[in-house]
Write a structure and sequence with these properties.
about 450 residues; five-stranded antiparallel β-sheet; two-stranded antiparallel sheet; about 15% strand
Length: about 450
């Protein structure tokens, strides 16, 4: 159980602990309630009743035998006749046939009001010899019991008779609960009925502790210990909220895997491009250049894309080719793949009005130059390329104020509430302040 608890993930361990606790609680309530009800019968009144229907049948399936006993009896209390079929109130049914054969008394065998000779003891010995079924060669004698009880044949009393009975019970196995042959209850037999004096219709044939199967106690123990251990081990591994988060992460991973296996065409490539479009600040810079130059309209013509980049930014063929060879650019523009509809612009600022004055055109050109310079650094493999210097930024644009970062930012990017500095997506704070101020 300990190994299973260690190997079981947290998101499974907590549900198992909760379910086992609920099931264990149900078993505890049922067993305890039924046992208390059975113990209360020891204080009930008793009367003589009649067994009107007795059935006992067993199912032999080759491996184990399942027996079932049905007893219907009637009894009279204060002139009213009642009928019932309840043997005991314990959680496990105790068979009445074993109870009546186990409770063998002198009164059941013969009248022992007066004992004055060994002939009276012979009645007890004959009763056991008859019910044992062992045959004449194994029958006991009165002398055997007299010797076992150290009794004097001239002084036979109730005490000697009780000793003979106890020895006989032990010899025939009745004291160990083993009955080799006995008389099963039959229709019409008398039976002692124990009934509730306040509600006579509630009755049993087996009262008190005799109506409780001691096999119920191991079940009660496991109903307590299994949920208890499960809750302790689950709490040691983590909290319920951590288990929920783990399950959410697993569900998200499964959803992504299912989506990855289910899509392999243009829609799948487009969804990947759109997911990566919102990833790093460098990828957003690539997307900004692609949208502002409307490179999607060139129908995946790599030469036309290169010519437009060289014309707008006045670049060399090597520099333009470096931009095109970016994995993100090739994925976004579908270079070498199936056509894909143009990506939507990242923000409203990327959509330009058809009618612009000369100052707006110049500002946009300078913005694209700065963004393109940031996007080119990875493919040129230099921190500050000497062959390409960005033009001054237009109004409203600046660089990320994180040390060593030259990604362009605008008024819409993250601004620290405390120091009022502007940062790019990768270096923004997790709250309203930047990492340095936090």
């Amino acid at each position: 159980m300990d190994d299973d608890g260690e190997n079981m993930p947290l998101w499974l361990h907590w549900p198992f602990a909760i379910i086992s606790s609920l099931v264990g609680m149900v078993f505890i309530v049922i067993i305890v309630t039924s046992s208390m009800a059975q113990l209360s019968t020891s204080h009930w009144d008793s009367t003589m009743g009649i067994i009107v229907d007795y059935d006992n049948f067993c199912d032999y399936n080759g491996e184990e035998t399942h027996c079932q006993e049905d007893v219907v009896y009637t009894y009279i209390v204060e002139g009213d006749t009642y009928q019932n079929d309840v043997t005991n109130l314990g959680w496990t049914n105790v068979e009445y046939r074993w109870y009546v054969n186990r409770e063998i008394t002198l009164d059941m065998i013969t009248d022992v009001t007066n004992w004055d000779s060994t002939n009276d003891l012979q009645q007890i010995v004959d009763w056991f010899n008859y019910n044992s079924g062992w045959g004449e060669e194994h029958e006991f004698t009165v002398d055997y019991f007299m010797s076992a009880c150290n009794a004097d044949e001239d002084n036979i009393d109730n005490e000697v008779a009780q000793c003979v009975l106890d020895v006989a019970l032990d010899e025939y196995g009745y004291s160990q609960g083993v009955v080799y042959e006995y008389s099963e209850p039959e229709d019409g037999d008398q039976a002692v009925v124990y009934y509730d004096q306040y509600d006579p219709q509630n009755s049993v044939l087996i009262p008190g502790w005799d109506g409780i199967d001691f096999g119920d106690f191991p079940m009660l123990f496991f109903a307590i210990i299994i949920p208890f251990v499960s809750l302790i081990t689950a709490r040691k591994k983590g909290t319920i909220s951590e288990a929920l988060n783990q399950f959410k992460e697993l569900a998200q991973t499964a959803k992504e895997i299912q989506g990855g296996m289910g899509g392999s065409g243009p829609n799948h490539v487009q969804s990947r491009a759109r997911r990566t479009a919102g990833g790093t600040s460098r990828e957003r810079s690539y997307n900004s250049v692609i949208n502002r130059l409307n490179l999607h309209s060139l129908q995946k013509d790599e030469h036309a894309i290169k010519d437009r980049i060289m014309d707008v930014f006045d670049l060399t063929p090597t520099q333009a080719q470096s931009f095109i060879q970016s994995e993100h650019v090739r994925l976004t523009l579908q270079l070498g793949t199936h056509p894909m509809p143009p990506m939507p612009p990242l923000s409203d600022t990327t959509i330009q009005s058809p009618v612009q004055n000369e100052e707006q055109v110049n500002n946009n050109q300078m913005d694209m130059m700065a963004v393109f310079a940031s996007a080119m650094e990875e493919n040129l493999e230099v921190d500050s390329p000497d062959s390409f210097e960005p033009k001054p930024l237009s109004s409203g644009m600046s660089y990320c104020e994180h040390p060593g970062c030259n990604v362009t930012v605008s008024n819409t990017d993250f601004r620290c509430f405390k120091c009022r500095r502007t940062f790019c997506y990768d270096h923004k704070g997790t709250s309203v302040v930047c990492p340095e101020c936090s």
